Structures
1.
Amino acid sequence: MSAPTHIPVLVKEVIEALAVQPGGRYIDCTLGGGGHAAAILSRGLPGGQLLGIDADPNAIKTARARLEAYKDSILLVNENSVNLQAICIKYDFLPVHGILFDLGLSSLQLNGDNRGFSFKRNAPLDMRLNPTQKVTAADIINTSSEGDLAHLIKAYGEERRSRQIARCIVKERPIQTTLQLTKTIEHAIGGRRGKIHPATKTFQALRIAVNHELEHLEAALKQAINLLGFEGRLVVISYHSLEDRIVKRFMQQEAKDCICPPSTPTCICNHTARLRLIKKRVVIPSPEEVKINPRSRSAKLRVAERIITQDEHITNRDEQYKVIEKSYLSEGANNGGWRRPIMLKRLRQTFSAAYAR
C-alpha cells in the first residue's frame, strides 16, 4: 500500500472552493490517502494548520506518511466525523476557515484492502471502515430476512431488482466472500447489462448500512456549520445521489431564512440563514480528469459559505469574542501549539468588518 496510488478528486476545485489562504485552519473530515490534505497544506503555507479525521486506521497511517513534510502543521485523528464537534473541542481546533468532506472510498480501500469493498477482488465480506465496529457485511447478508435485505438494497443502493437479488441471496446463504456474493447477484439478474456491473449497487448499499454513512453525514454536516468562522467554507464531494441529495437539501435549507412548509401563512420556525451558496450548480470533473482517473466520473462538489445571522450580529457579538478569547488564550491548557493569539486578532478584524457592513 503506497500513497502515490491514491489520486484525489477535483483537487484544484477543492482548493478554490475552500478559498485556502496562508495561515488558515482547515478540517479534512474524510482524510483518505491525504491527497486533498497535502494540497490544502501546500497552499496554506506559511502557518496553515489541518485537522485530518478518518474512521479507517489504515487511512491515518497512509496519510501520515504522505504528509510527513507537514508534520508540524497537522493533527490526525482516527475517529468518525459523526463526532466532529467533540473532536474539535477536545483538540481546541475551532473556529476554522474551511471544512472538507470527500465522501467516496479511496483507491487504497478499493484496490489495496482485504475488507470486501470491491466486487472485483475476492475478500471476506467485511466492509467496516473501522475494524472495532461489531456488524460486518457478512452479518447483514446472512442474518437479515429476505424482506429486510430487499428494502436495504433498494433504499441504499437504489437497485430496482432488489427483490430478485435478496431472494437469491437467501437461497445461497451462507455467503462469506465478495466473489460468492457477486456471482449470486449476477445469477439473480441474469448476468451483466450495460456499463455498470450488476453488483455495484448492492455493494454500495451494504457498505452504507455497515458504516451508517447517511446518518453520520447528516449529523456531521449539522456540526460543521457550528465550527466555521465568518466566511468559512463548507465543501462536500459526493459520489451517488443519496449523498448528494442530503448535502443539497442541507445547504439549501441553511441558506434560507424560513423553512416553514409553503402552506404555513406566517413563519413559525424562527430559522435564520447561516450559509450562502457559492455555486448553485454542482461542480463536476473535467473530461481530462475523468480520463486520468475514471473513479472521479460520478463526483459532485457543492460549496457554501458561513454567514453571520441577525441574532449573532446584534446579540451575541461580545459573547462570541469572549468564547473565542477563552478558547485561544486560556492559561494552563495543554494546547500543543494549536491556539494562536494572532488568529484571534484576525478573527476579530474579520468579524468587525462584517458588522460594519
2.
Amino acid sequence: MKLRLLLCLLLVALLFPALAPAQQAQMQPLTFWYEYSINPGKDADFMELVKTVGQPVRDKLMADGVVLAWGLDVDLLRVPGFATHIIWVSVADYAGVEKVQAAMQAQIAKLDEEAGKAGMTKKGTKTAGVSERIRDISDVSKTRDYLTRDLIFKTGSGAPPAGLLPWTRFAFVKVKPGKGSEFRKAWEKYNMPVYDKLVADGVILAYGLSIEEIRTAGEFTHFTWFVTKNLGDMDKVRTAFLADRDRRSPEEQDAMTSMFNGLLDLDASRQEVTRSVIFKVGAMK
C-alpha cells in the first residue's frame, strides 16, 4: 500500500454487503496490506505461490468468519520504486490480525518443513521451501507492511457478483497537526453525501475514509478509497463531484477551497488506482 497504495489506495479494498446498515455504521475494519516488489519475469511464480500457500489459509479463515475480505491488487500505473503487487486482508479487529498472522506463519513453517524432508528433485536440485521461493521471486528488501483502519465504511446493499475483479481509487492526504477532527467533519459534510448518492445509484460498490492504524510513515495521515466494477465508472464519480461543486455559489466554493487548504499539506497529496487480480468477500459464492 505503499503508499503506494498510495491507494490502494487495499481497496483496498472493501465490500462487506452481508453487514446490515447499522452494523456498517459502527464497524471500523482493520486491513493488513502486504506490499511486494516482484522480480522481472517472476509474476507467474508469485501468483502460483499466492494460490498454493496463502489462498488456502485466507479462504479457510474467511469461511470461519475471521477474514471479512481479501485480495491481490496491482497498480494501474507502473512507478519506479513502488511495489508491484499488494495483498490485502480485512478483519474486524486485532484478534483477527493475530489469527491471520499465526495461520500464515504455521502454513509457511509446515511447507518449509515438508520441502526439507523432500530432499532432491529428479533433476538433482534441492526442493525449495516457501521462504526460499519468496527470496527468489521478490526483492525482499523492499517488502513493506501497513495496518489501516476504516474510520468510515459504507457499501451497497447487494452482494458483489461472482468473479468480480473491481478497480479501487485511493486519495492520500496529509492533514496538518491537530486538524484531524476538523478534516473529518469537513469530509463528512462535503464529500460523504456525494459518495452516498453514488453508492445508492450503484456507480460505486463501496467507499471509506481510513487512517494508518499503526503509524509507520509520514507520507500521509488519511486516505479515501472507493471501489467500482470497472474503470469507466470512475468517470461518473468525477462528474458527480464536479456537479456538486458547480451547483454551489462562488462564495461557497471559495470557502471550501480555503478550508481544505488550511487543513491539508497539499504538496503531500497523491492518488493511486489499482485493479484486483484476486478479489474475495465473505458474502460472495
